[in-house]
Amino acid sequence: MLQKERIAWLDTVRLIAMLTVIMCHCADPFNFYPGPTPPDIENIKWWGAAYGSALRPCVPLFAMLTGALLLPVRQETGPFYKKRISRCSGRFSSGPCSTTWFLG
User: Fold this and answer.
1) Peptide bond just before 72 cis, omega within 30 deg
2) Shortest CA distance to 17 belongs to which of 48, 60, 54, 53?
3) Looking at residue 36, what DSSP letter applies?
4) CA–CA distance from 93 to each of 3, 80, 97 (Å)?
5) Which portions of the chain are predicted below pLDDT 70?
6) How far apart are CA 99 and CA 72, in angstroms?
7) Helices 8-26 and 58-70, interaxial angle, to 10°?
8) Measured distance CA(55)–CA(22) in Å, rounded
9) HSE of 67 in the Cβ direction (CA atoms, 13 Å)?
10) Which of 20, 41, 86, 100 shows a CA-CA span of 20 to 30 A to 92?
11) CB of 52 within 8 A of CB of 27?
């Protein structure tokens, strides 16, 4: 089996990005407060928005990680994109199909 060389700093950045995504999703209940409205709802929403905004860089961080791992392209452009499009097309089409089936 071919062993790929690991890049330690990219693994560290990936771990940080994954943890910030989890923490960012944990801030959602503060922005969409369920149940009866407490008297200090504005304060709760403000802190939820501040917490969520501080963690939002995780999304572009994943995009930058993808670029760092894919570029520079070491093969011809046609096979490179063909391989990636074939991997993603099923996943992108299965979402709307399963949602339509589930909702009826």
Assistant:
1) yes
2) 60
3) S
4) 32, 21, 7
5) 1-3, 33, 104
6) 37
7) 150
8) 10
9) 6
10) 20
11) yes
Residues 6+ apart with CB under 8 A from 21: 55, 58, 59, 62
Tokens for 43, please give them.
Answer: 């304060």
| pTM, two decimal places | 0.61
In three state form, how does the secondary structure of 38-77 look?
A: CCCHHHHHHHHHHHHHHHCCHHHHHHHHHHHHHCCCCCCH
Q: Would you say 20 and 61 are in contact if contact means Cβ atoms under 8 Å apart?
A: yes
Structure tokens at 62: 């994943």
What's the pLDDT at 3?
67
